Amino acid sequence: MTAAARDEQRKMIKYNHLVANLLIFHTAIGMTRALDSIAADGFGDAVNPEGIGILSPYQTEHINRFGDYVLDMSLVPAPLPFALPQRQQARRQTTEAAHV
User: Fold this and answer.
1) pLDDT in tens, 1-22
2) Segment 18-69, tens digit of pLDDT
3) 77/86 Cα distance (integer angstroms)
4) pTM of the prediction?
């Protein structure tokens, strides 16, 4: 096996890891939105740590790796549904206050 072929294989492996990580991230965002929607509809008690603990964004079913996917680059994605942890916000406020 030549060095060029190994480099191409490494690129393909890294690409496949990137795609898998993007699918997991996309699924985690979808799950978060669904859980937030359930809580907003008045079923917040149904969203509990035990139930969330068995969920996993790593899907192995219903993914067509070789499918035909169409990307509409004109669509603006919705903002991500997360906030910075309090620790980071407090650190940023302390840093901003020092610069003023």
Assistant:
1) 677 788 899 999 999 899 888 8
2) 988 888 888 888 888 888 888 889 887 888 888 888 888 776 676 666 666 6
3) 26
4) 0.56
How far, in Å, CA of 81 to CA of 34, rounded?
11
Give the number of other Cβ atoms within 10 Å of residue 24's Cβ: 14
Is 58:24 a contact under the CB 8 Å cutoff? yes
Closest C-alpha to 32, from 74, 79, 65:
79
Place of tokens 């699918």: 23
Instruction: Encode burial over 44-80: b for 16+ CB neighbours within 10 A, e otherwise.
Output: eeeeeeeeeeeeeeeeeeeeeeeeeeeeeeeeeeeee
In angstroms, rounded to a whole number, what is the distance separating the alpha carbons of residues 78 and 88?
23
Which residue reads 């294989």 in tokens?
A: 9
* Token pair listed for 33: 């939105």
Q: List the domain boundaries for the chain.
A: 3-73
